[in-house]
C-alpha cells in the first residue's frame, strides 16, 4: 500500500477531472489518495505522500502559475531539507489540439517533472503500450486534449480518461514497490 | 535579398517535401534557397547562407541522428570560429499524431534550435496567426503529422504545407532585414 | 532607435541589478528602455516595446512564479490578439554555482523563451564570442552566478555584468533593425 | 541483484572514465554491470539489462551523435516492441565550465532521458544530498566538468567522480527493488 498525492491547477474543471481519474487509477492498485488544488496543498500533504503527481493545463507553454507558486513557496522548503528524496513523482497535463503538435505540452510536462527531479524523486514515465495512449499522452505523462483545434472546450474523451487512469495505476505500482525502501546515497 | 539553406533528414520523403515547401516560401520573399540532405551539407553551404533551417522527423523524441552528426562534425567547426553569429536560424519537424500530444515534437525542435542558438543565430518563431497553424505547428516551428494516430503514413496535408510555406516566408523576411547588417558584440 | 522592456523578478536584488545592466547595454545602442518588476508590468508596457527581455532567478529549476503569473495573466491576452508578433524577445537568469552544471538555468531560460516564442517574437541568442561569456551565460542568454557553490550570495561578478551588458546591446541591435518593419505572414 | 548496462560515447576518455565509475557504484550495490561504447552496444545488451544508463559529452548542446545513432537504429526497435517497459533508466554527462552555466548540460541530459522515457523506463534523478553533488551534477544526473572555463581538458575531479559513483549506486538500488516486479498497464 502507498499514499499518493495528486496536485492540480484547474480553470474550468477539466484538469481537476483528470486528477480524479488518476487518483482512481492509483486506488485501483490499492493506494490511498489525496487530491488537492495547488492553492490548498501544504507541506504536510507532501510529507505524507509516497508519490506526488502534478497536473496542469498548458498555459503559454508552461504550467499554470499556481503550480509554480506552490513549488516556489511550499515544496522548495522540502527541497532544502531533502525531505522527499527517494519518493515517486509523475505528471500529467491538459490542453488543446490547436496546431496538432501538442501545443506546448512537452515543455509544460518537463517543467513539472523538473521540480520532481529536484526533489530527488523517482520519475514514472508513460509507456506507449498504455491503454488509451494513442489518444492521450506522450512519453512524460498522460495528456488530454480538453480543447479542440479551435481552442473550444470538449473535455477529455474516453480514451484519454482511460490513459490517465492507467497512468495513476502505474504510479501506484512504482510507489508500492519502493515506498519506505528507497534510501538514496547521502 | 538573402541566401537561405534548408537542411533536412528524411526517411520516406515527407520531411524532404516539407523542406522544399519551406524553400518555396522563402523564394516567395525573394530569397535564393539551397536545399540539402544532412549527409550532403558542407561547411561552405553554411558559410554561404544568411539563414539556416534544420528539419527532421521525430525519432525517439529527438532529431534524426544524421542531423546530429552534421552538427557535431560540420557546424561545430563553424561554432569554434563564431562563423555564423548574427545570421538567422529556424526549424521544422515531421512526425505522427500517435498520442495526440506532439509525440516528442517539442524536444526535437528544441534540440535543433539549441544548436542554432549555440551558433549565435537569431531565431525565428512560428506565430500562431500563421495561415495553417491550426493544423501544422507549435511555437518553435512548423510541424506536419506525416503519420496518423496509428503511425501509418499519410503525408503532410494542405494546411500543414501552407503553414510550412509561410514559415519559409517569415524566415526570409527576417533574413532580408538583417543579412550583413547584424554584428553582435565581440 | 527602439523601445526595450526589461521585466524581472528578484528576491534580494541581484536579478534587478542584472536587469539594469542589460538596460544599460540596450541604451548603449540607442534604445529607450523601461525596467519593471514582474508584479508591476502591464499590457501597455508590452505594447509600447519593440523588444521584451524576461529575467528571473532559477527557482526549483524554473522561473520565479511571479514571472509565470505575469505571463498567464497579462501577456496571455496579448498572445490571443497576436499583439507582439514580429517583435524581439530575449532572456537572462541568475542562480548559484551549486552542482557546477548550471543548476537548472537552461530549463529556466527555455521556459521564458518559450513564452516569447508563443508571442511570435524573434529570439536573440547569446553568442559565445560575447565579452564575458566565459563566466556568464549559455547559448540562450546571460547568466550570473549570484550565489556560490554553497548557495551563499556573492553577487554577479564583473565578467558576468559585462556579458549581460553586451546581451542588452545585442538585443537593441536586433530591435533597431527590425522594429516596425517585420510583419509575419497572416 | 540486478543487471545494469552503461552506454557511453567518448572522445578523449573522460566520459568512458565516468561510465566506469558509475559502473563501480552500481557494483557497490551488488549489480552486475556491462559497460559499452555506443558503437558496440546491441539490442541483446539492452534486453539483458534491468537498468540502462546513457552518458555523453555535451556536443553543441546535445548528446554525441553516436548516442543518437544507437537510439535511432538499435533501441527504436525495442521501443516498437515495448521491450524495456518498466525497467530503470538514468543518465550522466561531461562537459566544460565555459560560461559557468552548464554549457548545454541540461538539454543534453534531457535528450537522453527523453529516450529512456519513450522506452517506458522509470527514471532515477540525482538528489542534491548526493555526496559530491556540490561539484558534480544537476537534478537529472551526474555531470563532470572535464574541461575548464577555457575549454581545456582537466578531467573529472574527485568530488565529481564520487558523485558519479553514488549515482551508480542509486540506480542499482532502484533496479534491485523493481527488477522483474514492475509490469506497467497494458
CATH architecture of chain A: 3-Layer(aba) Sandwich
Kindly identify the CATH topology of chain A: Rossmann fold
Structural class of chain A: alpha/beta
Q: Helix coverage percent of residues of chain A?
A: 25-40%
Which sheet architecture does the biggest sheet of chain A show?
A: 8 strands, mixed
Please indicate the count of domains of chain A: 1
Largest inter-chain interface? A-D, 37 and 37 residues
Secondary-structure element pattern of chain A, one letter each? EHEHEEHEHEEEH
Per DSSP, what share of the residues of chain A sits in E-state strands of 2 or more residues? 15-25%
Radius of gyration of chain A: 15 Å
Quaternary organization: homotetramer
Query: Runs of chain A with pLDDT <50, length 5+?
Result: none
Number of strands of chain A: 8
Broad shape of chain A: globular
Q: Span between N and C termini of chain A?
A: 26 Å
**Please, how many helices of chain A?**
5
